[in-house]
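Ticket #4471: complex job returned nothing on first submit. Input attached below:
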Amino acid sequence: MTYDIAVIGGGPAGLAAAIEAKKNGVNNILVIERDRELGGILQQCIHNGFGLHVFKEELTGPEYAQKFIDELRKEGIEYKLDTMVLDISEEKEIKVVNTKDGFMSINAKAIVLAMGCRERTRGAISIPGQRPSGIFSAGTAQRYINMEGYMVGKRVLILGSGDIGLIMARRLTLEGAEVLAVAELLPFSGGLTRNIVQCLDDYNIPLLLSHTVVDVIGKDRLEGVTVAKVDNQFKPIPGTEIHYECDTLLLSVGLIPENELSESAGIEIDPVTKGPKVNEAMETAITGIFACGNVVHVHDLVDFVTEESRRAGKNAAKFVKNQLSNEGDIISTKAEDGIAYIVPQVIRLENIEEHLDLFMRVRTVYKDASLIIKADGEVIKRIKKRHLAPGEMEHIQIKRSDFNADKIALLTVEVEVKGGEDE
Amino acid sequence: MSKTHEMICIVCPLGCRLKVTENVELRVEGNKCKRGKEYALKELTFPTRVLPTTVSIKNGILPRLPVKTNAPIPKDKIFDAMKIINKVEVVAPTKVGDIIIANILDTGVDVVATRDMDEREKV
Amino acid sequence: MYDVAVIGTGIIGTFIARELSKYQLKILMIDKENDIANGTTMANSAIIHAGYDAKADKNKGKFNAPGNKMYEKLCDELDVPFKKIGSLVIGFDEEDQNTIKELYKNGLENDVEGMEILNKEQVLEMEPNLNDTVTGALYAPSAGIISPFEMAIALAENAMDNGAELILNSEVTDIKKVDNGYMLEIGDRKVEAQYVINCAGVYADHINNMVASSSFEIKPRKGHYFILDKSVGSLVNHVIFQCPSDKGKGILVAPTVHGNILIGPDSEFIDDKENLGTTAERLDFIRTMALKTTTQIPYHTIIRSFTGLRATADIGDFIIEESKEAKGFINVGGIESPGLSAAPAIAEYVVNLLKEISGGMEENENFIATRKKFIRFNELTDEEKAEVIKEDPRYGRVICRCETVTEGEIVDSIHRNAGATTVKGVKKRTRSGMGRCQGGFCSPKVVEILARELGEEMININLDSLDSYILTGKTKENDLYKQ
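Support reply: We reran it on our side without changes. The output follows.
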């Protein structure tokens, strides 16, 4: 089987990329989805808050997904459900299996990686204690409750104040469970502030900042969890333990781009984002393999995933049509003081039409600071920010015309603090 | 004497930090758009929320259908609304936007389906 | 009335039951847990030691090397993964080098084959990631790695294929001497057997004391472990032991048979035989200790930490004998390391012992030594994958994406003898949930498949024990509102 573009993943990233590629003149596209339906994780994110940028209206996850699913069908783009990609090669051969077609080998001119991300686990953060049932990742619990209709517990403690953790605190409360507290290792929440207000404050659920789980008790089902305050090295402070009797512990301790397939293809991974290094076209280090959405870096807003994926889809189409330039100056981006990472990592100036989009996260919370963009050490842009937080991705646009120097090798972004770091 | 309230706008994910000063009249600062001002004033006088949840569905490819109130409802009516929503069972297929419960609790707000739900294939 | 009751279905109980199933005997395997191999066999170093460690005059020394030699054939018969990768005991100073020489000498006495003492360069050539402060090593090529619980499950399955019976969730609460044997009380149930073999692991003393006066005591030692992600599975290629010293036995770093890296264990005597909890202090201790072997350990790739118990007997050796006070009651207790390595040899010895006690046993002419091949989708070639899915489309649905485990494998693991009934049971048999996402993605699907195949409601599917329920009810069906 041969396609112009194979899109791996039928979530928001894959759908947007496929639709955009079609709109840019490529017809022979296949979307490969491992789940039983399209839409990806959005189908279990039944809360509102999606779509304000892209659709200028507030949608729930399934509504947001539905718009793309409808459009994909309208465009007549082919997709396979319940289909797992086993392997991708550098030569763009994709091995897949499903129950209907069996084992298939698919060749594509371009591939768009849109596999999303997965949740960090208890093991990854080495939470001590016993190993009873009743410990769920927030996403697993979300699927059980919102899609399968099962409750995962009655008295719940949540570790991690990322958005899924916050959203699940409200969701569990609405379905009759008692959420005792949300504990967060860091001195600030990794979630959107609006979610702290409408998911915790609205329901009087305490948020324990600088706290972590130090013991898990229960041989069969979870019976209790001990939480303690941590110092600035994240070490638990003896004597600050609080014990909660609960039957459920939800973990919302971070997301990791899912790049097993990217690695098997030999794609270079950024150690900070844990996603492929990409250029301005969302193309990975392997020519013709593109990536977008949470597989590249974890986003907080699906709207930004959509925008990024449209860019990937458009450029994949350009690539297929031999319209993507590989000539001209190449600029590297580098995260400097206060910035954790920048996507894209590489820019081919030739392909920038009107403006360059840079996405980044800061390392900690800042009040009244500025983002300073430098080209080879020279400030080309300065953006004032009243509030910066690691939980909220920053997006900077630089006009093509701002690159006025003859040749630029390095583009850096740093945080300049005026009022000092917050807390 | 003026009284101030600090709050975070939840209208959109930007999460503007608002300061409302109660003097002769209410003054809102920190909002990036006019919806922020509306939110702040409403939050002080008559707080409302959109309620997203699920209802039981028969013969669907899944046993639960996601729904939401198509407009915000008073914050203090959320649990009463949940009690009503929890008693409802719909039958597949449904379409996104289908009205599941009209005018819930006389709020003038409908509970609507937020996705299409096909029928389960008959075995 | 059974001929033989085997109490405990760890590696020892299942090896003995399977060995007994070669004879015309009515055999009952009994376990207090909800699955086979849920105790010490579930959580240990998973190493088939070469046998240079224990003294030849001890049972440990007597059974280790012979047991090691039996594994290859057994794993082949029972389709259990086993890799003979060899081990290194590495030293860092003069004292260590002396220990290495002593171990070598002891190994010769125990008939360990192929050992070599390596110098620094040889060691670093074999294991380039080790710290270059290493001074030398004892290399034992016959050491191997295995999945102990998969072995025990395969043994139980094969024993059942050959007629043995199994009861789970059956704690033996008392044993009484009756005419021609013993009566075992299992809660309200009573089971009679002519001979009883006590393989109750950390509870072997407790079981012995039901029929005889206390002749040994099991003092369990807990050990903590880390598992690293498969992506760093090539950190070391052999089982790497630190040289034992006065300070302790050291921390090992070893590949697992499925391609992860295992680091551990520490050793701590404990009182509560049921508490398998980890502590931050102990995990930190292992983390630090292992750095002596290699500073290259990528600790950010840890996917799981856990503890296991060792059934250490106060007499310091394996106890493998008929009780002096209870005829026909055989104790197989205190089987700590190298118990897994010694297990097949112990089983053979115990069956011969029973032959003597009983005055002879008739061979089971219908005994089949092999079990039905387990299709491991991940290990098949592309052509084989295509073929397998054609025959059974359920092999075309990947349930566990980290370990590439298909629905076909999960269904198979449920319907075999000694099959899975729990999420952990499926995990032990198929590796679904063993990967880097630790079941986050696949566990709801596994619950669904278990419910469907067992004709149960999803709500009734447990993680492991009967009380380890996963789901607490359905949404929309509660009246818990307190607001």
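The helical segments of chain B are 34-45, 78-87. Closing as resolved unless it happens again.
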